[in-house]
Amino acid sequence: MANPLDQDFTLFSLLKFAFPTIAMMLFMGCYTIIDTIFISRFVNTNALSAVNIVCPVINLIVGLGTMLATGGSALVARKMGEGKRDRAKQDFTLIVLFGFVLGLLITVLGVCFLDEIIWRLGASEILFPYCRDYLLIIFLFTPASMLQVLFQNLIVTAGKPGFGLVLSVGAGIVNILLDYLFMVPFGLGVKGAALGTGIGYLIPAVAGLLFFIGRKSILSFKRPVLDFSVLRKSCGNGASEMVSQISTAVTTFFFNRTMLQLMGEKGVAAITILIYSQFLLTTLYIGFSMGIAPVISFHYGANHTIRLKRIFKNALGFVVVSSILVFLISTIGNEQLVMLFTGSNTDVYEITTQGFRIFAFSFLCSGINIFSSAAFTALSNGKVSAVISFLRTFAFIMLGLIVLPCMMGVNGVWLAVPAAELLTLGVVLFLIERNKDHYKYVRENK
User: Fold this and answer.
1) How far is C-alpha 369 from the chain's CA centre?
2) Which of these, 40, 61, 62, 41, lies nearest to 50 by C-alpha position?
3) φ, ψ for residue 296, nearest 5 deg
4) How do the pLDDT tens digits run along the chain, 446 residues long?
5) CB 219 within 8 A of CB 60
6) Is residue 369 within 8 Å of residue 393, measured between CB atoms?
7) Which residues contact 94 (CB under 8 A, 6 or more apart)?
8) Global pTM?
9) How far apart are CA 70 and CA 89, in angstroms?
10) Would you list the domain boundaries of the chain?
11) Which residues contact 154 (CB under 8 A, 6 or more apart)?
C-alpha cells in the first residue's frame, strides 16, 4: 500500500490532506464559542465573566490530563512498536488508573478549598456566587474529565482515530444540547452550563472504558505493574502541553485581574468574549498546521529537499493569505460576532467592539507564528518550537500586560496580544532565516 505522505504535494493536496484536522478544530472552536454564547445570553454577562475567572483552574486540569495523555501515548506506542504488547497494556492501565486517581484527588481538594480558590482567582463579590456554582460542578466531574482526555489520545494509539473523532464530536453536540436544556427549560443558570459540560465529559469517559474493556482492541486493560518510572516518563514526555496550559492559566488570570481593576465585571466579560473569539478565528491556522505536520516530518526524514521547499512555500502562502482574510473578517464582522454574546445596546457590547478594533491586528501575525511553531516540532526541533510558543502565549503577553496598561489604560490591554504576536513574528523570521541552511526549507539544493 502506498504511503499517503510520500507524494509531491501541491497546495490543493496539502489542504485536502489537512482538511479532517481543520474540520475537527473548527468544530471545537464552534462548540466552545456556542457554550459561552449560551451562558452569556441565557444567564448574563456576569456569569460569562465568572466562567473566565475560574478558567485557570480548568486550564490546569486539562493541562495535567493532556500531559499524561500525550506523554503516556508515546510511551505505550513505543512499547507496542517494540513488540512488548503485554507490557504496553500494563503501562496503559497504570496511566489510566493514575489519571483517574489524580482526578479524584483534585475533586477532593477542590471541594474542600473551593471558596479560597475562587477568592484567590480574583473574583469580586458580584461574581463569586456564579464562580462557586460553576466550579463546584466542574470539580465533581474532574475524574471524568481526566479519563476523557486520556481516552481521546489513547484510542488513536489503539489505531482507532475515527472512533476518537466520533466521540469528540458526539460529546460536543451532547454538551451543547444539555447546556440549552439545563439553562433554559430547567432554569438552572450557570449550574446548568457546568452540568452539561460535566455530562459531556462522561460520554467519552464511559465509552472509552467500554472500548478498552473489550479484548478486540490492540490495547486493553491488564493488571498493571506499579512502575513509577512509567509515570515519570509519561509526565516528562508531555510536559510541554502542561507548560502551555499553565501559560494560558496565568495570562488569563492577569487579563481578568487587569480588566476587573480598570472596568469592573463588564471589562472581564469583554476580555472573555475576545479570548473565545480569538480561539474560534485561529482554529483554521491550528488545524492546518497540525494537519500538515506529518507531511513535513516525512519529507524532512526522507531528505526530499525540493519537495520540502515546495511544501513550505505553499503552506506559508496559504497562511499569509488566510491571515489577511481572517483579519478582514474580524475587522468588518466584529460587531456581528460580539452581538452573538450580548445585545448591541449594552455596555459590554461597546467595550468589546472598541477593543476588537485593536485586538484584530493580532490575526495578521498569529497564523505564521502558529504554523512556524508546529513546523519546527515536525522538524524534530522541539526547543525552537517551545521558544516560539512560550514567547507568543506567555512572555510577550505578560510584558505587554505589565507595561501597556500603565501607558495607555484599557487600550493597552487590547494591544497586549497584537504586540506579543508582532514581537514573536520578528523572532520567528529570525529563526527561519537562521535555520534555513540546516533544514533547506526555503531553497533547493544546488
Assistant:
1) 15
2) 40
3) -65, -45
4) 455 667 778 888 888 878 877 877 787 778 788 888 899 989 989 999 999 999 899 989 988 988 888 777 767 766 776 777 788 888 888 999 999 999 999 999 999 999 999 999 989 999 999 999 999 999 999 999 999 888 877 776 676 766 777 877 888 888 889 999 999 999 999 999 999 999 988 988 998 888 888 666 677 778 887 888 888 887 876 666 677 778 888 999 999 999 999 999 999 999 999 988 988 889 888 888 877 777 787 777 777 888 888 888 899 999 999 999 999 999 999 999 999 898 888 999 999 999 999 999 999 999 999 999 888 877 767 778 878 888 988 999 999 999 999 999 999 999 999 999 999 999 999 998 888 777 666 554 44
5) no
6) no
7) 224, 225, 226, 227, 230, 231
8) 0.80
9) 16
10) 1-33+244-446, 43-237
11) 69, 72, 73, 76, 92, 95, 96, 208, 212, 219
Q: Are 363 and 330 in contact (CB under 8 A)?
A: yes
Q: CA-to-CA distance for 7 and 16, rounded, in angstroms?
A: 13
- 192-210 as b/e, with b when 16 or more CB fall inside 10 Å? bbbbbbbbbbbbbbebbee
Residues 6+ apart with CB under 8 A from 84: none
Q: How many helices (H) and strands (E) does the chain have?
A: 19, 0
DSSP 8-state code for residue 342 = S
What the block records as the C-alpha cell of 232 is 515519570
Alpha-carbon span 83 to 70, nearest angstrom: 20
